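Backbone shape codes:
===
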Amino acid sequence: MGLLEQCEAAFGSPDLYRVLGVRREASPEEIRRGYHRASLRVHPDRAEPDAKEEATRRFQILGKAYAVLSDAEQRAVYDEQGTVDEEGEALRGERDWQEYWRLLFKKITVKDIEDFEKSYKDSEEELADIKAAYMDFEGDMDRIMESVLCVDYTDEPRIRKIIEKAIDSGEVPSYKGFVKESKQKTIARKRRAEKEAREAEKTKDELGLGGEDDLKALIQSRNKDRKKEMDDFLAQLEAKYGNNAKKGGKKTAAKKGKK
């Protein structure tokens, strides 16, 4: 079974972009973040014993999808022809996909995040990320606030002003979902964020975390309902600190999906 068929069997779509949760126009960094988010959810180290085999299979498929889309030549072939090279270096059977993942994404600490947050907020990079999220999610503030790094509900007025200024200047279009958002949705988002903040602080206090402690301990302590939310948060942050990806590969036919 080829990669695209494996993607359809495991994730319900042969589209590599959809499997990684990114748009077809995504930048290399966006693809990297998408891969990290998706792979964190199925990482074998986080799976229950009876689900480890399936998690490993899905984890390997995600690694192959990223290997194709992170290589400029292979991505161009896939975009043009809807094919991937099953015999190329990127998809070779002997690759250790967990080691590949570890090389891409190093561990980070609380201090790493604090230092990054100081330099990121109000930077040109944050401004570009806010505009990109607004465009990607067509003004849906729930998804924008989840997507932009290092923000909580207290940042929402600032985020809104940035978007409104961009709309007024013609940099981005005016989406109904943004300009006509109901007050109830705004309040619900605030309440949800406040609850999550309280839960995170409580868990941190219970574990005695702080300073240089590895955030992995916090993730592992979370129950299953909270795990996905923190994984997504960590994925975005860790993507800022990873090493460069290895490249490889070339071409096998299959359906070409659109995101």
About this structure: Residues 124 and 130 are 10 Å apart (CA to CA). Residues 183-207 form the longest helix (25 residues).
